[in-house]
Structure formats: C-alpha cells, structure tokens
C-alpha cells in the first residue's frame, strides 16, 4: 500500500463525520444478536489505541429533528502483529460524551445531562461502553483487508454481538500506525434497554417519541 499521510487520514475522518451527520435515519442498520466469546488478546503483542485522536460520532433522531455529537475513546488495544489482527477492544467513558449541535448554554448541557441520566444511558451506574472483537480466526486477518468488524457491544446492562461495516484502513508507513474508519451504521437502542421515549416500550406517545435508531461512526488510530 502506498504511503498515506496523517492529513489524508484526517480527511477520511472528516468525511466519516459528515456522512454520519447528513445520512438519513434507517440506513445501514446492524442487527444485534446474542453475544459470543471475544477473540483472545496477547497483551504482549498489543498495540495501543491513540485516545487523543480516536472517537465515535453519534446522532439521534426525533420527529422534529436530530442531535449529534462525539464520544472520545478512553482505552483500547489491538492484538496486531505484522499487519495481522487477532483481537482487540475499545472502551468509552459516557461522561466524556459531547453534544455538537447545541451550545452548552443553549441546551447542550441540558441534553447531555438527560442522555447520561437514568432515562437513557444511566452513566452513574454504567459508566463505560465497550466493544470487543469476536469471530476472528486463530490465524488472524490482515487488517488492510478488513471490510467489517464483528464484536460484542456492551451498553448499560446488555451485551449484544453486532457487525460494523468498515470504510477504510489507512497505513502510515512513516509512523507504522493505522487509522480505521467505519461507515455510518445504526444500532437499535431498544436492544440495550435504552427505553426513554421509545415506541418499543411505550404506547400513546404520539409525536413525542424518539427514534430507536442511533447512528454511529468511528475513527480509531493506533499509536
């Protein structure tokens, strides 16, 4: 693969964010199934995720519009040797969630507090979101050939297995690091017991409902 600069990787990240903000609800939905055993990680061969430049973008929908923001990565590691991926995980602290479409004083702080409350993600009780890779063969897979990532997503008190579509894997030859970008994809929050304003749990909501789909996309960079 030709050498790619971090400027290009950043451009890919921006493209992923724009797609996540402009895409319509209901596209690229991923099915949630029962969790399976996570792929084993050899910590001695682990490559750390660069927390300063890795993040998840989120977008939620309601009849009158949408809100979006970011969720930085707080920890993570990939079992990655000579370009072969054998396992890994990423964790995110919910209290680091940001709201990007509203200024803090114009509703952004209020929305964040509501999202972190018991109504939605109950961050005080379940402070971390975790994604662990699964279904990777013992011999591993070449990371630059990835078209999807299968893994267990743990949110609140529920762990479900999902398949995330991968948009690109960029290798920076100069620094020996990777940037992995997903395509925008939707999860159904009802699968993780996020109930507030959901038609999956309540009737008679009229137009006062919030769509079950949450649109996500991410950029992960290794150190």
UniProtKB/TrEMBL annotation:
It comes from the Bacteria. PROSITE patterns: PROKAR_LIPOPROTEIN (PS51257). Residues 1-19 form the signal peptide. The keyword Signal applies. Coiled coil: none annotated. Keywords: Signal. Residues 46-223 form the Lipid/polyisoprenoid-binding YceI-like domain. Pfam families: YceI. The keyword Signal applies. InterPro entries: Lipid/polyisoprenoid-bd_YceI (IPR007372), TTHA0802/YceI-like_sf (IPR036761). This is YceI-like domain protein. It comes from Porphyromonas somerae.
